[in-house]
Amino acid sequence: MLRTLSSVSLLIGLHAIAVTANKPPIIQGPITVGTKGHPFSAYAGNISSIGYVEEEFFLSGDAVRYNVVGNLTSDGHWTLSYNSTASYKTRMLIRRPLDHKRFNGDVLVEWINVSGGFDITSTDLPGVYEAGYIWASIDAQATGIEGGATNPQGLIQWDPVRYGTLNIPDDAISYDIVSQAASVLRSGNVTGGQIPEHAILVGASQSGSRVLGYTNGVQPLNGSYDAIIPAICAGASSDFSPVPAHPTPGQSGRTVATNSSGVMDYVRDADGNTKGGIRLPELAVPVAGYNGINNGLSGNTYPFSDSKLNALYPTHQEYVAKVKAAAYASLHEKVILEYQVKNYTRAAEVANVPPQCTSS
Ligand SMILES: *[C@@H]1O[C@H](CO)[C@@H](O)[C@H](O)[C@H]1NC(C)=O
Ligand SMILES: *[C@@H]1O[C@H](CO)[C@@H](O)[C@H](O)[C@H]1NC(C)=O
Ligand SMILES: *[C@@H]1O[C@H](CO)[C@@H](O)[C@H](O)[C@H]1NC(C)=O
Ligand SMILES: *[C@@H]1O[C@H](CO)[C@@H](O)[C@H](O)[C@H]1NC(C)=O
Ligand SMILES: *[C@@H]1O[C@H](CO)[C@@H](O)[C@H](O)[C@H]1NC(C)=O
Ligand SMILES: *[C@@H]1O[C@H](CO)[C@@H](O)[C@H](O)[C@H]1NC(C)=O
Ligand SMILES: *[C@@H]1O[C@H](CO)[C@@H](O)[C@H](O)[C@H]1NC(C)=O
Ligand SMILES: *[C@@H]1O[C@H](CO)[C@@H](O)[C@H](O)[C@H]1NC(C)=O
């Protein structure tokens, strides 16, 4: 069971173990039919202009359901056994560099979030493409395909011609579908022949909870992934049942300190910025106070006054040098990628810090 942020790093660097050869799913595609002319959640923009290709494939096969043996204990050492098998057909959306030399060797596999009743992806950020990953997403749960119970907005409703034959009978098979996705990607059969060296599984929100359950229960059986990132799941795991959005009870995740009013809060400096943790340049060389607690999901930003900025950064050159140094420090800690040093530096160069009156 994942309880603290530091445990996350323990999940990075798992080594894929030999996978028992199971019948691989049948691959169909690239898919081109349909009324919309493109897949659901297609790249927003001209993907050729970033040197990538987007293709969609259907996978069909048989996937297993698991039984939980004993309790899902907080040490995360879980035992699963075979329950039954069901047939499925689903889709995988893949974006890969056109030029094989740009491929960095890693495929990121996102477990699509279906909490809203339709597919949402959250890991296909610009940096993924700049760094040369292959990005793939897998529909592993019934809701993404057939939509929610009321006002369904699944793939089938969106484009029945394209997606009408897809079917996932229940969410108990979602875990094995995700294992099978890794073998298909590793084969090169859906990536233009590019063979990934590493497969990294990521999921956020409900998918984060499922990825966490996968980490504890399924990864030890299949060894399908080299690294796993269960994100934004607050330490709560799904429980392998056929029901969607079904977290294990009593696993409330990491403990956050409370202040003397009993309110969850962090240790902060005089500007309200949190101390400790990962010091990205935004916090190491701040131009504002940031508070993520007071305003729901959005948080608040409190820009520093001109006089405070002048006191902190007497010249623009000093500000840029500090941001650049902080970016290199983050690179050294391996929490940002190399191109982001350039991005931070460029952003600092064009920032009006300290504030100047310009006549242009
Ligand atoms: C997309 O980008 C490619 C490469 O930059 C370009 O050749 C093509 O004309 C663009 N397509 C559209 C529709 O803009
Ligand atoms: C599993 O959990 C239940 C409820 O907390 C408890 O009664 C039971 O003893 C536990 N079983 C084992 C094998 O630990
Ligand atoms: C997952 O989906 C829910 C419902 O649409 C949404 O509120 C949430 O922000 C999504 N999570 C992520 C990480 O995208
Ligand atoms: C980094 O900067 C480049 C050029 O300014 C921009 O195209 C790109 O979107 C930026 N990437 C990120 C992740 O912000
Ligand atoms: C994962 O392991 C389970 C249990 O051994 C097995 O039934 C299943 O077929 C495996 N899946 C893959 C994709 O190897
Ligand atoms: C990849 O394609 C080859 C050739 O068709 C096939 O033998 C193999 O089973 C496929 N592997 C997977 C995992 O789809
Ligand atoms: C295991 O199989 C039984 C009988 O098919 C079913 O009722 C039960 O829901 C299954 N459990 C899981 C976790 O899929
Ligand atoms: C505790 O934190 C809340 C939320 O940030 C804040 O409103 C409150 O004033 C804090 N109490 C103390 C004693 O610092």
TrEMBL record:
Domain Alpha/beta hydrolase: 27-256, 260-344
Domain of life of the native organism: Eukaryota
Keyword Transferase applies: no
Pfam family, one: Abhydrolase_10
Signal peptide location: 1-21
Keyword entries, A-Z: Signal
Descriptive protein name: Alpha/beta hydrolase domain-containing protein
Provenance organism: Trichoderma harzianum CBS 226.95
